[in-house]
Write a structure and sequence with these properties.
The complex is a heterodimer of chains A (316) and B (319). By secondary structure, chain A is mainly alpha-helical. Helix content of chain A is 73%, strand content 0%. Chain A is globular and about 80 Å long. Chain B is mainly alpha-helical and 319 residues long. The mean pLDDT of chain B is 81. The chains are: A mainly alpha (316), B mainly alpha (319). The interface between A and B is large, with 47 and 50 residues.
């Protein structure tokens, strides 16, 4: 691997590497992107907000040690107070503890679904972009087919048909988690696949790819080392937006009462439970919905900043 | 134009077939029997069960089952709702107009917001108006429809008591009074869906107009001394709309998803809430049929988008 050898001024090839590394120290593509990202103030602020939220849901339950299912009928539907900073729900359960726990699930679903959809999309896009003829046409048809499927109804159908079986095999919590992640990812990979395919079409005829091919690089190496890294910019942007979309999708399912089981308080589930008492305890719905909104907004702003930083239109 | 229409129709057929294969595969892969409710019901004797299974062809090979199902769907025989005790197609036809009306009205609202705001923002890029509009658009499409719906109910129904929050299909009033009631109860659902779509489309319109506005033919039009209004409306917007139409067509599945949520929040008796109640009641024929109707609607709107596309860009029709 060229990157791991020490630069030495004697050998020609190594000189070239040394020069390249010296230049890289000044402006790497990533430091350049970071510089452009910082110019988008709202994106930077959103990054801070999102990190704070992740930090809160990761370590919050260690500090705020109230159980999510401590029922207290003497404190039903309390507005925020010192004992319950975010108030309580209709069973007197502490909303802060439930929000922190639900945040873990909502954010985990978002990240997991994004990872799956980006991986699937990249693989499909890369295969379509490298193959010509039948394989490409078939994959494009498949992508278009998935794009024209009505996502929410089919997702609901999937959950309706498979949830009981998965519950038996891998347990209620993990089963529905897997189902929701795979289900959401199944309807989010198409954007990435299209982006990757378009990038591959533009990149695979470039001189540097030609040069690598002339040097005897295998097809796999061409894709992984030369084309894919150059196609990553738009994929990162799309992946960021995917996290937000996955969080919304999970909350939508929970809000329709078809997501996680009732004893697991995801943000969408909290909102679903809150909507019946909205006239007497509006804080409950506002806190749950506000958290979803804040997370999604922050991620979308970050995606906007990344779009400026990685500019997908600048396809070499 | 008619040849173009026929070609688009022919292209839509494989998509519909593909969707039907996907739906049927999902159903066939699903563990358990779709008629499990009947099979486990002790009130139904085994002979009746066997007869039912034979009638529905449950024990045939999978290809035959798919063909049977497909021909039945094409014949308009969509099955029988075990819960509501009516044919599925009558059930859906009762509810479809409401859904289409709410979606249609919200799309009109979304266009009325997105077109002027997007075009105005793009003709003055990075001005104050543009920045405010872009920020609001981003906030707008980060707000999930179920949250805006609840906030609107909280503000306009609970606090101010201006608007009803339950949609009624059986309004007692007639004539003008009926229209007034209908509009009052439609404002919130239409606003929820329309504002969400409007925010998304504003971004599409803005970036599409920005792409077009720098092109040479626009400069030419301006240097000929044409009034700015004419340049924007006739030269810029018409061409900018071409990619926007494609993007809007791609958004249709999300629009229907939003419609399901909105119908659920405001208890609108449309096919979205029918789907949810069918899932809660394990009413498989209704679930399958509604999902298929949603798929058909998506294809239909894609077809309409294609036609618009041909109208906006005449070069496409002749190809």
């Amino acid at each position: 691997m060229a990157g791991s050898t020490l630069a030495s001024p004697t050998a020609d090839a190594r000189t070239a590497i040394a020069v390249e590394r010296a230049r890289a120290r000044q402006v790497t593509p990533w430091s350049d992107a970071w510089r452009r990202f910082r110019r988008h103030r709202l994106a930077v602020a959103s990054g801070v907000v999102l990190l704070a939220m992740i930090f809160a849901v990761a370590f919050g339950p260690l500090i705020w040690r109230v159980q999510i299912n401590d029922i207290d009928f003497s404190a039903q539907l309390q507005p925020p107070s010192w004992a319950h900073p975010l108030g309580t729900d209709d069973l007197g359960q502490d909303l802060l503890a439930r929000m922190l726990y639900g945040g873990r699930i909502s954010l985990a679903v978002g990240l997991a679904a994004m990872s799956v959809s980006v991986c699937v999309g990249t693989i499909v896009g890369a295969i379509a972009g490298m193959a010509r003829g039948g394989v490409d046409a078939g994959l494009v048809w498949l992508t278009d087919l998935f794009l024209s499927l009505p996502q929410l109804p089919v997702l609901l159908l999937l959950i309706y048909l498979f949830r009981d079986t998965l519950k038996i095999y891998v347990g209620p919590e993990l089963g529905i988690f897997l189902l929701i992640v795979v289900g959401i990812a199944a309807f989010r990979w198409m954007t990435v696949a299209r982006l990757v395919r378009a990038q591959f079409f533009a990149l695979r005829e470039k001189e540097f790819v030609e040069a690598a091919r002339a040097l005897g690089a295998s097809r796999f190496r061409l894709v992984v080392r030369h084309i894919l890294p150059n196609a990553l910019g738009p994929v990162i942007v799309a992946g960021t937006i995917d996290v937000a979309a996955a969080i919304i999708a999970e909350s939508t399912l929970s809000f329709l009462g078809l997501g996680f089981p009732p004893d697991i308080p995801t943000w969408g589930r909290l909102l679903f439970d809150a909507k019946d008492t909205i006239d007497v305890a509006p804080h409950w719905a506002l806190i749950a919905g506000g958290a979803i909104f804040l997370a999604v907004l922050a991620i979308n702003f970050i995606g906007d900043g990344l779009r400026d930083a990685l500019d997908p239109r600048r396809v070499m | 134009m008619s040849r173009y229409l026929i070609r688009r129709l022919l292209i839509a057929i494989p998509s519909l077939l593909g969707i039907s294969v996907v739906l049927f595969t999902v159903l066939a892969l699903a563990p358990g029997d779709p008629f499990g409710e009947l099979a486990t019901n002790p009130a139904i004797p085994p002979e009746v069960q066997a007869a039912l299974r034979a009638k529905f062809g449950m024990d045939d090979p999978i290809m035959m089952r798919y063909l049977h199902w497909l021909t039945a769907m094409l014949h308009g025989d969509w099955g029988f709702s075990f819960v509501s005790r009516v044919d599925v197609d009558t059930l859906i036809l009762q509810r479809l107009p409401t859904t289409l009306a709410v979606i249609g009205a919200s799309q009109v609202l979304a266009l009325l917001i997105a077109l002027p705001v997007g075009v105005y923002a793009a003709t003055r890029p990075y001005s104050i108006f543009d920045q405010v509009a872009s920020t609001f658009a981003l906030i707008g499409f980060s707000l999930p429809t179920f949250f805006t719906g609840i906030v609107l109910i909280l503000v306009f129904s609970v606090s101010l008591n201006w608007l009803p929050f339950v949609f009624r299909a059986d309004l007692a009033a007639t004539g003008l009074q009926w229209w007034w009631e209908e509009i009052r109860q439609s404002i919130m659902p239409v606003a929820v869906l329309g504002l969400f779509q409007g925010a998304t489309w504003t971004r599409f319109v803005r970036s599409a107009v920005l792409d077009v506005i720098r092109l040479d033919y626009v400069t030419t039009a301006r240097s000929k001394g044409l009034p700015e209004r004419g340049v924007v409306l006739k030269h810029i917007v018409r061409n900018a709309l071409i990619p926007v139409v494609t993007l809007i067509a791609l958004q249709m599945p999300i629009v229907f998803g939003g419609a399901i949520v909105t119908e659920q929040i405001f208890r609108i008796p449309g096919i979205g809430s029918l789907l949810i109640s069918a899932i809660q009641a394990n009413d498989t024929p209704v679930i399958m049929a509604v999902t298929f109707v949603f798929a058909c609607l998506v294809i239909l709107f894609n077809l309409i988008a294609d036609l618009l596309y041909g109208w906006l860009d005449p070069r496409i029709s002749y190809r």
